[in-house]
Amino acid sequence: MSLTKLLVNLKDELENLNNTIEELVIALEQGQPAQNEESDFELPQKPEIKLEDVRKELAKKASEGHSDEIRKLLKTYGAEKLSDVDPKDYEDLFLEAQGVGQ
Q1: What pLDDT is attached to residue 83?
Q2: At what angle do helices 51-63 and 90-99 cross, to 10 degrees?
Q3: Cα gap 71→79, rounded to integer Å
Q4: 37-92, pLDDT tens digit by residue?
Q5: Is there a smaller number of Cβ atoms within 10 Å at the N or the C end of the chain?
Q6: CA 22 from chain center: how many Å?
Q7: Largest Cα–Cα distance in the chain?
Q8: What pLDDT is stored for residue 44 in this prediction?
Q9: Sign of the dihedral defined by the CA atoms of residues 82, 85, 91, 97, in that order
Q10: What is the distance between the alpha carbons of residues 59 and 88, in angstroms, rounded to a whole number?
Q11: Distant-in-sequence, close-in-space partners of 96: CB < 8 Å, separation ≥ 6
């Protein structure tokens, strides 16, 4: 393909992109869904972290030789053992446990 043809194609694509962006801006300003937006689109739900998920992660880290770090981590949540941790803290504890030993 010649350089001129490529430049013409690029110009056309950029114009299409500009038109799409303009449509999106107008739709957002009006509070309406964009023309091509599917109304049944939903963001995926992140999975709920359960006690057993946290228990498995802590056991894995302990078996890797990080028992002391796990004890310290539990204490940051005011707990001596996992059953003492407030269920609302499971996700944060799980994520912090994943970082142990990294």
Answers
A1: 92
A2: 20
A3: 9
A4: 555 667 778 788 999 999 999 999 999 999 999 999 999 999 999 999 999 999 99
A5: C
A6: 28
A7: 71
A8: 79
A9: negative
A10: 20
A11: 73, 76
Statement: residue 33 has pLDDT above 70: no
Residue 81 corresponds to which amino acid?
K
How is residue 102 annotated by DSSP? Answer: -
> Which burial class, exposed, middle or buried, applies to 27 when counting CB atoms under 10 A from its CB (0-12, 13-18, 19+)?
middle
DSSP 1-47: --HHHHHHHHHHHHHHHHHHHHHHHHHHHHT---TT--TT--PPPPP
Tokens of 2: 């010649």
